[in-house]
Protein 1
Amino acid sequence: MATTTRRRVGIAGAVVGAASAGVAAAALAKRYAVGRIRLRPDPEASEPLGELRGRQVTVTTSDGVSLHAEVDGPEEAPLTVVFCHGYTLNLDSWHYQRRDLRDYHRLVLWDQRCHGLSQRCSAEDSTIDRLGEDLFEVLEELVPGPCVLVGHSMGGMTIMALADRHPELFGDRIKGVALISTSAGKLAEVSLGLPALLSKAVHKITPGAVSLLGRRGELVDRGRHAANDIAFLVLRNLGFGDSKNVSPTVVDFVESMIRSTPFEVIADFYPALMSHDKLTALGVLDDVPTSIVVGDKDWLTPVEHSKAIAAALPRAWFTEVPDSSHLVQLERPATVNDALRDLLKRAAADMGTADGR
């Protein structure tokens, strides 16, 4: 009996040892792969990502949430450009746009509620309509004159919610809109690049899984911090269209923004994103110059969603950016900035000014 027990213990120990060795080997391989990627020449290595700052201000919303914002650029500029960031990101996701536009335009960048340095709120108040009202209150407090709105992903949805709730602003105070990698609705039907049956199964189980994990947010966040190499590889391959050539510095920068967003916040906003439907509000945007930009490999808000927006806005300018994905403003900043400059020129022309650089 003792011999049998020792044999079982020995077998069990060998299995555990082999499994541990396998995990260790996988971790070592992953670390080696990430290390090799980061050792490649990186033209963005010296870029001060996340370090550009403006005058910091706080906007307190009508429901008592403190929103962090920054005002940058010349105060005397005739146009203010207001940047609305995407899901799980923060105002620093507009780094390249701020860098290239701040010399000529007054800029307002803000952290959406529960993101960045803005205050957390309840799950009940984590909705796209509430974000639209937040944007209205940011405009009321920080934008004294005409402006152009720029929204990425959830930020584009925020602009649509504003159009739905305050259509009178468009054409009056709001002189132009840029919608980048966003959707007017039906995100729950996105294939995520998967076969139809698998995509349907993923969409069926994801809401429950996200809700369950959201209730264990602190535990999930500890795991996310421990698995940053895995997150780097996943983000590099899914968040960018040209994963082989994307800057590892940029990938690290985005990953740090996502990781700083508590999983509880991710879970709270997920239902709002999936139920978002503002197609009927888009007509309001046809009253002002509008630019639509999307990466051709965007699997989160696919090209078809931007084309649906363009179909509802026949006078809009549509730009499909090759070899780029959902984070197109960071992956192809020159192309996005050119589209924004064109939009600003059109907005300035409508105002009868020449400031569209």
Protein 2
Amino acid sequence: MRATRLFCSTLAAVLLAGAAHAAPQYVAAGTPLPRFHLLKEGSHRYLRYLQAADSNTPLDIWQRDIRFEGKRVTIRQRWDAVGKSPSVKWLDSSFEAGTLRPLSHTRITQKDGRKTVEGFAFAPDKVTGLPDLPGNTQKALAIASPEPAFNFEADMELLQALPLAEGYEAQLVLYHPGGPAAPARYTFRVAGSEAIAGPAGPVDCWVVTTDYNQPGTVSKFWFARATQLMVRQESRMPDGRLLVKTLID
């Protein structure tokens, strides 16, 4: 009997260890997201800045608005950049409710007195330029997507809707609309948990990491465990500086 109990305890330990290092779970665009209910209507603002050994250089204030419109979700973003060349960028993205399968995406940038308009339509097998959007500089775009892709510019909300837990890994096909890289799979891993400072005090967070398919680099996200809202992100730049995105409100 004692030997049986020992065997069962050992087997349980092995199974738990295996679960902690399970293969990444592939999340297909268009499938229901387990924690989609954590996405709430409203606005949040983030400060982006570059951190060096002895300095912090502000880049922009970044606002994200979520709205539910029937069977669709709209995420609108505004980036107000500072510095020598101030600029404003507006992003307007629509998604299928419950899955965050991307439907359309527009990006308008105002800089140095010039306005640039970009618009995209997502389909299961490709991403194309919106043909009827006035002034669309991406009208001729046609990118094949062997697997349905998520919109990279809504990665924060996508990760928020996943079942984050110790040892969880997710593999997602992502595409940055109009970017040089084709749609590709990226792996995000819950590396642990940590309490960090938030706008209203300490926040218990899941720590999520990815290398964005660039081995040797690591980007870290902190998602509040209670709401899975992103509180902070850090990414090391090629010049050694740290790019920080931190929640303001």
